[in-house]
Specification:
Blueprint (H helix, E strand, L loop, with lengths): L2 H16 L7 E6 L3 H13 L6 E6 L7 H4 L1 H5 L8 E2 L2 H4 L6 E4 L12 E4 L22 E4 L2 H9 L10 E3 L15 H8 L7 E4 L8 H14 L4 E4 L10 H4 L4 H5 L8 E3 L6 H6 L2 E4 L3 H5 L7 E4 L2 H6 L4 H10 L1 E3 L2 H13 L5 H11 L6 H13 L20
Parallel strand pairs: 1-2, 1-4, 2-3, 4-5, 5-6, 6-7, 8-9, 8-11, 9-10, 11-12, 12-13
């Protein structure tokens, strides 16, 4: 960056710091790579939807051409969140925002100074999220899902143990799994399924090395042969036809002919939570949602894919954790056999599932209130309604 450009940025930021606020209005910029990035912050947005003092804007700093595609689902469902004000990153760079929120390691270029908040994407230990190789000290707030990730960041040297950015918040996306806001019957009706029939959720992660690419069609056929309902939840990236994400396969077109009407669907929504609630058994390879499913204490069948673990840079601890709570198999036949056993004895491994869920999710069911309280603190606004006291979210790692 040239000295003249840096000087201009410094002058603008100094002016912003010293200018007097006009009224109570605040602006928050949400950045996303895929639709599920929006899902990560949606509970917070809904909780603040009726506050006229806060305006939310939405951008896609890495792929501006996909802006409307990334946010197409909330654009379609108006009324459940603040109005979606889409803004191209080139325009956002010159706007003033009081907070910037991302759930991936994105970094939009913003001319004006802002508070940068990382809320994290998933709890699967993939892609360096639990042991980053670069410093995270430029983030002003880090909303940690659990103490495990916090300790890993410190051990990796990404942050300091006494960092003022540390916030132990939890995982707002998963609150709905335990707070009673979702019911199995309602989800089954929406999908058009017979609720008396067992339901199996197949939710592979994205990657050309995933189980979807290796045996996805066989898995779906095998599960349908068991006479159960089947929900196939494709990762956002598995719907991306680029080779690096889906292997260049149109998985919706590939799988749709296999599905039996009234008994099998490709999940229409980007938020997997309703489908987790509907499922009696989950089949995955190494999806973060596999860990979220632990909050429901139901059986998991894990398709062991060593190539996937390597390609996705899965933290070894997380591969071991998922293996400890699931029955691991190597092929489609194994998926069928393990699913039959899981349906016959859903309590197997229950104790271990509960233990790992307690480790990975900080006070589930209440994370949204802590995230909202913290965001109001950043915005220097009094919350409209009662929130968890801020001293409860400013936590240091335990030994």
């Amino acid at each position: 960056m040239s000295r003249i450009r840096q000087a201009a940025i410094d002058w603008v930021r100094a002016r912003d710091r010293h200018r007097e606020r006009r009224g109570d209005g605040r602006r928050v910029l949400v950045d996303a790579r895929t639709p599920v990035n929006y899902v990560m912050v949606a509970p917070v947005l809904r909780a603040m939807a009726r506050d006229p003092r806060v305006e939310f804007y939405f951008t896609a700093s890495e792929e501006p051409s996909r802006l409307r595609d990334i946010y197409h689902e909330p654009l379609r469902r108006r009324g459940e969140a603040p109005p979606l004000r889409l803004v191209h990153p080139a325009r956002a760079a010159f706007m003033r925002f009081d907070a910037y929120v991302a759930s991936d390691f994105m970094w939009a270029r913003l001319l004006r100074e802002t508070c940068r908040i990382q809320v994290f994407h998933g709890v699967g230990g993939k892609y360096g999220f639990d042991a980053p190789t670069t410093s995270m000290r430029e983030w002003h707030r880090l909303f940690f899902v659990n103490r495990r990730r916090l300790r890993n960041f410190i051990r990796a040297g990404a942050i300091d143990a006494d960092s003022p950015a540390i916030r132990l918040v939890g995982y707002p996306k998963a609150d709905c799994l335990v707070d009673g806001s979702l019911t199995r019957d309602a989800v089954m009706r929406e999908l058009g399924f017979d609720g008396s029939r067992p339901t199996v959720l197949y939710a592979p992660t994205w990657s050309p090395a995933s189980s979807l690419n290796a045996m996805g069609e066989e898995v779906v056929r095998g599960l349908l042969s068991l006479g159960v309902n089947v929900i196939v939840k494709l990762h956002d990236r598995s719907r991306d036809l680029r080779e690096m994400y889906s292997g260049g396969v149109d998985w919706v077109a590939r799988l749709q002919p296999l599905l039996v009407p009234g008994r099998a669907v490709i999940a229409p929504g980007h938020d997997i939570s309703p489908y987790l609630v509907a499922a009696d058994v989950m089949v995955t390879d190494h999806s973060s949602a596999g860990f979220e499913y632990l909050l429901l204490d139901r059986p998991i069948v894990r398709i062991h894919r060593p190539a996937l673990l390597q390609a996705a840079n899965v933290h070894p601890d997380y591969a071991e954790l998922l293996a400890s709570v699931a029955e691991s198999v190597d092929d489609a036949r194994g998926v069928m056999d393990a699913t039959v056993r899981a349906l016959a004895d859903p309590s197997a491994r229950s104790g271990r599932r509960r233990e790992v869920a307690e480790d990975l999710f900080h006070l589930p069911g209440t994370a949204t209130s802590r995230a909202v309280a913290e965001l109001y603190d950043v915005l220097e606004l009094e919350p409209q309604a009662a929130a968890v006291p801020l001293q409860e979210v400013r936590c240091q790692p335990s030994a």
